[in-house]
Amino acid sequence: MVHVVSGGLVRRILPMAASVAGLAALVAVASTALSASGTAGQGAQERRVVRMQTLNVRDILYVLTGGSNTLALMRDDGVLLIDTKPPGWGQAILDNIQAVTDKSVVTVINTHAHLDHVGGNALFPTAKEIVAHANAKARMETMDAFKGPNAKVLPNRIVTDRLSLLDGVDRIELYYFGRGHTDGDLVVVFPEKRLAHFGDLFPSKAAPVIDAASGGSGVAFPDTLARAIAELKNITRITTGHDEASATMANPASPSAIFANPRTMTWNDLQEYADFNRDFLAAVRQAIAAGKTTDEAAATLQLPERYKSYDMSQARANVRTIYRELGK
Fold first, then answer.
1. Where in the sequence is the domain holding 165, given as residue range(s)?
2. pLDDT of 32-43, one tens digit each?
3. Residue 164: what are its φ and ψ, rounded to 5°?
C-alpha cells in the first residue's frame, strides 16, 4: 500500500506497480504541503492542497488542481508536467506523482512565464527538457526565481509557432496563436485524446487577466482565440489555467477513491469564451465612440445575457488596458 499524508491524515492509496504501464484503476490523491509564511516568529502555516484526478480511467493523463492547474502525463519513460504551480507547491505535486509512479519528471512544459505556473520548476531538476515560448523564456530569465543555480531549470527548448512532442496516443502538439493573456501563451493539445489545455488563455469562465506588461493584449485576445478555434480540430475537452470547478467530480460528495473523467470545459465553452472576449472588446469600442471615460465604460458595460455567470472581477482592469491600447 502507498500512503500519502493529506491535511494531517494518512490516506491509503490503492496498490500500484512501480511502472505506470499497469495503471488501469487510477486514483485521485489529495496532497497537502505545509510551509512557513509571514514574518519570523509568527509561525504561520500556509496550507497547499493539490488534488490529482485522471482525465480518463484508461489513460495516464492527470489534472492536478490547486494553486493553478497542472497536467501530468505518467509515461514509462518518465513524467511530463504541464506547468509547475506557484513557488512552494512543487512538493505537493511531487507527492501526488510519487503516489502512482516511481518515475522522475523528465519534461516540463511552461504555458507562459507567470510565477504561479513556473514557480515549481526548481523542484524538478531531473527534467532534461523544459519547453516554453521564446517570449516566455525571455521573461523567465529576468525573474528572481531563475537566478543563480535555478537558471538550470529555465526552458531549454523553444517554441515560436508550433512544436510536436512524443508520438502515438500520447502525442502532443504545442501551438502559439498570438497575444492574449501575455505574448508567450502556449496551447497544449493531445490530438489522440481530443483534449487541449489552454492555460491562462482560458483560465475559467471569467474576464481574463490581461498582463500588458508581459505583452498581453485585450485587442488581440479575440483574434488569438479565433485562430485557435479555426486551427484546432476534433477537440472535445478543454482544461483551463485556474478553474478547479471544471475539473471536479460530477458528484464531489461521492466516497469513491477513484476520481476518473472529471468535468472539463467543452468545445462549446471555448467558443462561448471567445465570443465573450470579442463582445467585451466591441462594448469597450462602443464606450470609446460614445466619449466615455474608462470608469464610465466599466460601470455601464453592456454584455449579452449569455455571459451573466461570468466572473467580472477583471473587467475594469481590462477596460483600462483596451483604452490604453487604442490610445484613449
1. 2-325
2. 554 433 333 334
3. -105, 140
